[in-house]
Amino acid sequence: MATDGFGPARARGGALWFRDPTPPPSPTSSAKTTPRIQHALDMHALAAHWAELPRREQKILLLRFYGDMTQADIGHQLGISQMHVSRLLAHALTHLRHRLLATDTPAPHLAKAS
């Protein structure tokens, strides 16, 4: 399946669909599929918990990691301070880390941020 580049395609019905940034492997190189498979598994695991994040944190993650924007740029675009962007980014990443590592109880500092 051919892809058209990096980044999120679109959020549809609460699920986030990602484009695969890696080129398709050649038919003779099965060893090169291992990173693609791992990437697909990682994106599937992330998408399973994406909807648990507040929309603003989703947007911050997309702007930071797919838009390649700095925290200051994100803050300017959203009308919040860079420090608040930093806090929201840390909250979102910590939440996803705990969910992806399958911890049964969230860290105590993971109260809903807004």
Gist of the model:
The protein is mainly alpha-helical and 114 residues long. The protein has helices at residues 33-50, 55-65, 71-78, 82-100; strands at 8-12, 15-18. The chain has one domain (8-20, 34-100): Arc Repressor Mutant, subunit A (Orthogonal Bundle).
In DSSP terms, counting alpha (H) and pi (I) runs of 4 or more, how many helices? Answer: 4
The percent range for helix content is 40-55%
Name the poorly predicted regions: 1-17
At the fold tier of CATH, the topology name is Arc Repressor Mutant, subunit A
What is the tally of beta strands?
2
Biggest sheet layout:
2 strands, antiparallel
Gross CATH architecture: Orthogonal Bundle
Helix and strand succession?
Answer: EEHHHH
Distance between the termini: 38 Å
Shape: globular
> Strand portion, in percent?
5-15%
Strand order of the largest sheet: 1-2
User: If you compute it from the alpha carbons, what radius of gyration comes out, rounded to the nearest whole angstrom?
Assistant: 16 Å
Number of domains: 1
CATH evolutionary superfamily = Winged helix-like DNA-binding domain superfamily/Winged helix DNA-binding domain
What is the average per-residue confidence, as pLDDT, rounded to a whole number? Answer: 76
Helix-strand makeup class: mainly alpha
